[in-house]
Amino acid sequence: xxITGIGLMAFVLAHMLGxxxxxxxxxxxxGYAEMLRSMPGLLWTARLGLLAFFVVHIVTAFSLxxxxxxxxxxxxxxxxxxxxxxxxxxxLETGLxxxxxxxxxxxxxxxxxxxxxxxxxxxAAGRHDVYSIxxxxxxxxxxxxxxxxxxxxxxxxxxxxxxxxxxTLGFNHPVYSPxxxxxxxxxxxxxFLGYASIPLSVLAGVLG
Length: 208
Ligand code: HEM
Fold this sequence. Notes:
The chain is an all-alpha fold and about 210 residues long. It contains nine helices and no strands. Helix 1 packs antiparallel against helix 8, helix 1 (about 1-20) packs parallel to helix 9 (about 175-205) and helix 8 (about 140-170) runs antiparallel to helix 9 (about 175-205). The longest helix has about 30 residues, at about 40-70. The N and C termini lie far apart (about 40 Å). Protoporphyrin IX containing FE binds next to helix 1, helix 5, helix 7, helix 8 and helix 9. Protoporphyrin IX containing FE (HEM) binds near residues 12, 106 and 151.
């Protein structure tokens, strides 16, 4: 879980940095999308690697939850946690929201099923107009709100996931572990704000 978690966190960070180029305008953003598509070998290696990481991460999550629950004949009658953050208690639930989100997100931006009327748009240079597709998507208030909810859930998942990686890999230190926890909070906040800034800017009319 930890190794695939690191890979997925690296993707989430890289994808966010790529997406933030939307603030530099259609020229830069469509150029970036075109650049990714012009390297099919790299793109498909990354896609297949990402898919494998997702599958292993999810299968391990279910088997871990099963082991945790199965290790007691009866579930706890009273479930008082001594020291646990809210995000650590709902990893399976927040993870499932992220999974549902990714499936819808692929249907929307990769396969063009959700808003087919814009999906084939091209810009003046004849490139796939990913800029207009993203803006058009977030002008739909319902979609933006759903999106903001999902990236918040992603932030919650990462809030615990970040520090959990260190724990799983055996890093436990009286001085540094609290720093790792704070770094996890900062990472989660950066990811949430970075992704949320795009639909929020479209709704506010700053991007368009
Ligand atoms: C403001 C937020 C986001 C925007 C604007 C955005 C935009 C996009 C776009 C335009 C694509 C299609 C790229 C292309 O085919 O040219 C894409 C693909 C993808 N996005 Fe996002 N995304 C966002 C958030 C996220 C988040 C939070 C995740 C993961 C939790 C995610 C996971 C993916 C995946 C897995 C793909 C498929 C990559 C591929 O085509 O191989 N995205 N995104």
